[in-house]
What does this fold into?
Amino acid sequence: MNDRAARHVVVEGIVQGVGFRPFVHRLAHDHGLAGWVRNTGSGVEALVEGEQEEVDAFLAELVRDPPPLAQITDVRVVTRPASDVQAFTILASAANGGTQPIPADVALCADCRRELYDETDRRYRYPFINCTNCGPRYSIIDALPYDRERTTMRDFTMCAACRNEYEDPASRRFHAEPIACPDCGPRLRIVEHAGPTADHPLARARRLLAEGKIVAVKGIGGYHLACDAYDDHAVERLRAWKERGDKPLAIMVRDECELEHVADVTPAERALLTSPAHPVVLVARRAGGRLSRHINPGVTTIGVMLPYTPLHQLLIDETSGVDVPPSLVMTSANRSAEPMIVDDEAALHELFAIAEAVLVHDRPIATRVDDSVSHLVDGMDAPLRRARGYAPLPLTLPFAVPPLLACGADMKNTFCVATGTGAVLSPYVGDLGQYAVFSQYDLAIERLCSLMGIEPQVVCYDLHPEYWSRRFAQRRFPDLPHLEIQHHHAHVAACMAEHGLSGPVIGVAFDGTGYGEDGHVWGGEFLVAGYASFERAAHFEYVPMYGGEAAIREPWRMALAYLRSAGIAWDEHFAPVRALAVKHRPVFEAQAEGGIAAPLTSSVGRLFDAVAALLDVRQRVSYDAQAAIELEALADPALHAGYDFAVHEGLPRRINVFPAIRGIADDLRRGTPARVIAARFHETIVAIVRRVCLQLRAERGLGDVVLSGGVFQNKTLSHEVAQALSLSGFSVYRPRAIPANDGGIAYGQAAVAAARLKGAR
Ligand code: ZN
Ligand code: ZN
Ligand code: FE
It folds into this structure.
């Protein structure tokens, strides 16, 4: 008894919903230890007792070899007197009020996939198979700690067989909270116009898809609309109903073999596609493939994902008898202005307008979770949208804060809830300017705050006086202290905080639109930035946005503005001039002359639009950044010299790209191919960033550069700018965990607020 030891262990990080307690239980068992383990409000705690050597071995293994999805951030061990307990048990969760990461939904694991196709398994072809390593998490959680009774699985009473597995430490479903089987778990049904039909809902759905029909499918975080991705007619019909213009549709491919048929995928892209989150990844579309041309008109990339739930796996499965399409369009079930439908009643009420059938199940979705979208830049994951599989995303702040809400930006909104140095970035919310999205904003904030057990004591939001997020915060929290944070400062601070930089840095923030401190529309900014404050060191010269917001939808307006600013006449020779109806020209010229209805902008996003219009890539856009994306796709990969530009001295410096516009006009007159002009233009932006950064380094001695803002979603630009700066000896940082677009703004707001609150104390 002398060498008997006891330790109390507290483990923090992502340790709930990832099979951590069963892991601890098994480990204790292996080492002949007694004691207990339980979830707490902030992680997992355990008491282990046994031979000293075994206790030490247990602790070493605990840290060395945790379950695959666990991420341990801290382990604290305290010695306790041995008490001679004999058994090891899993105790009920202790709700002790701390904040803990909220587990994200996880794609079907390899073990469950094997069982799914094992005829002798009792879950053979069961669409809701899951285990401690996979299955729904965030989308079914009502409250924490994470236990079945606080998920939407609470009303499914476990059968004896499931109960045995759930309680058996040797089972890989030991305390798998969503555990289910055909006898006791959720069930599928298919509903068609005439009502519920078919004994075999999946077989029926597959047949309809094979016939070119559209089927609504209830997934993990909401409803999708599915159809055969090879069927032009079906895809066109679906696109028309969604009212989303030319915006590409995501597809789900059956397996990695089908992936090869539709796309050219790098090993890094494949790794991301098969990672536990199974996001949509934008990859190069295979030339000459048979996918419908209506999936991604005008672009060379395609958004693909692999089946991430057993339901999707079975739906797209080829062993079913029916010749089901190997690639399905799998797009969220909503019209463009609305959030994805999650509610069964709404689905059955609204989706028959487009779908022939609705594949529905009876496991309620606690919260909407959209598909995540990523692409790889320089071989690394660069998220475009963080939701399913990642969110809510745990992050760290540079300084501790009181309970705080950062409201984010209005476009691609996410919000951020923080306390101490822990911050959680919400899943993608959407564009708050859309009423249907805005009306769910309040609820989403309330839900995340309540999951985290936080009542905000400070709110922060964008400087923009017209932002819905700002108006919401002012109305909802009238009595709390408010902080206003400039948009591009937030972009830069988000990337700084993600990389743990202390600053000051040169923050290069290029995007479409952000409200500036001078009331103009910023978006081509070089900030010398710390967390608490920034100085606008340089920016692109202002040009007018003819027609204001209309200039965002109609790039030809920006082209006219740039031509005029560059001193070039509006000649019929230029495509954007032809886009302006002749009868409207006098009015337009008078407007331009008088500067009426023309806010000023330094936006690089708008500059890309202008150049795209000059090259006649596009005069009107139907989705965000469409012209810029198409301009990038057009650019010749071979090296070409950039155009001239000038940087005018001053505070701030002003970057004059009008010589480049004149160069483009000359090239157009000369008949230079558009792909060469597009490449020269990219080179020009690279050269501008390099020159301004060199000037700022010479003056201020700054060597760290942060690249952020939606323009850096351009892979070519991001790569070339980073390379040019690195070669000049700069340390370059780009967003990795959060999107470079406005989806990362909320985290930046929280980081800035943290610094300002610290200064205020
Ligand atoms: Zn599994
Ligand atoms: Zn069961
Ligand atoms: Fe932005």
Remarks:
- The first helix runs from residue 20 to 30.
